[in-house]
Write a structure and sequence with these properties.
The chain is of the alpha/beta class and 318 residues long. Helices cover 37% and strands 17% of the residues. A hairpin with a 2-residue loop joins β8 and β9. The longest helix has 16 residues.
Length: 318
């Protein structure tokens, strides 16, 4: 595993770089990729982001200035905030065996790069990228803005339990560059579409409770998305909803991606390790936030995730 200085030195040697983000891209993977691309370009390097078909309205504007043109052939490939090769978008699969540097912060990181650097204790991969980019040169506003997106979104605007003192120090340093962090906060944390609110209302109305009401299961079937004509942007970060219910310390959000293909997202408290539960079903993530994918009808998918939670919870009651 590389140190910060070693990762920075390696990046100084790279040119004609393609940067990869994960499927269903969130603010952390997009923010890290955009910031790294901006930092490399500031060094005179040619660098682009591989287009990601899963971008939502909230993240697309940070990605667009760096999207690779058709036909770009990279000499080096870097991944940001990707814990496993299974999380690569379809158009990135061909690069899976030639990732020169993988940068991540998940405990379940699989070290698939030719060189790897990870910081599992970091709340966001953006914290790690901040230290690497600071070694490469000054943190300009062009670098700082997407990094702020990365750090703020992976911590729920610094409200999640993964937030540390270092998270706040990094955010403060980024704000000091003069970026418009207020707009980021409003767009990501204080604005919802009507369709998003309808989705949340329907999810809460159909929510099921288990384990003495400590485990909540919320579902987003394709039929619900169709009912409200909701887009991917409307459904972004729905997994944070269940954890807001009083008394719930394990929120399971079941999102149907295709018929009988469910993306399961867990948000947990100290009692249940989300990564351990999701690892049983082939997934992973963090102790308090993890995910996996199950191909089965809804009833069976729900049974599997509840069984997995029961295996890692010390006192789960049916």
């Amino acid at each position: 595993m590389l140190t910060i200085s070693e990762a920075a030195a390696l990046l100084r040697e790279f040119d004609h770089v393609l940067i990869l983000t994960h499927i269903r891209p969130d603010g952390d993977t997009v923010g890290c990729a955009a910031a790294l691309c901006a930092g490399l370009r500031a060094l005179g390097k040619t660098a682009y982001l591989l287009p990601n078909p899963g971008l939502t309205d909230s993240t697309a504007s940070y990605f667009a200035p760096y999207a690779a043109p058709v036909g770009f052939v990279p000499d080096r490939v870097v991944s940001t905030d990707i814990a496993a090769l299974t999380l690569l978008p379809d158009n990135a699969r061909d690069y899976g065996g030639r990732i020169d540097l993988a940068v991540d912060h998940h405990p379940s990181f699989e070290r698939f790069g030719r060189a790897n650097i990870a910081r599992p204790e970091a709340a966001a991969c953006g914290e790690l990228l901040y230290d690497i980019l600071r070694e490469l040169g000054p943190i300009t506003p062009e670098v700082a803005l997407p990094l702020y997106v990365a750090v703020s979104t992976d911590t729920g605007c610094f409200a999640y339990a993964n937030t540390t003192a270092n998270t706040h120090k990094v955010a403060a340093a980024l704000i000091e560059t003069g970026i418009d962090y207020r707009t980021v906060n409003k767009v990501f944390f204080r604005t919802k579409t009507r369709k998003r609110m309808q989705l949340e209302g329907a999810m809460l109305a159909a929510c099921e409770f288990y384990d003495r009401d400590r485990v909540a299961v919320l579902s987003v079937p394709l039929s619900l998305m169709e009912q409200f004509r909701a887009s991917e942007s409307d459904a972004e970060e729905l997994s944070s909803l269940g954890g807001q219910i009083q008394g719930v310390d394990c929120a399971v959000t079941m999102r149907e991606l295709r018929p009988d293909v469910w993306k399961l997202s867990l948000r947990t408290g100290e009692r249940i390790n989300a990564t351990e539960a999701c690892r049983i079903l082939g997934g992973g993530g963090h102790a308090a936030a993890a995910g996996c994918t199950v191909e089965a009808p809804w009833t069976e998918a729900k049974r599997r995730i509840l069984d997995a939670v029961a295996q890692v919870a010390p006192d789960f009651l049916r």
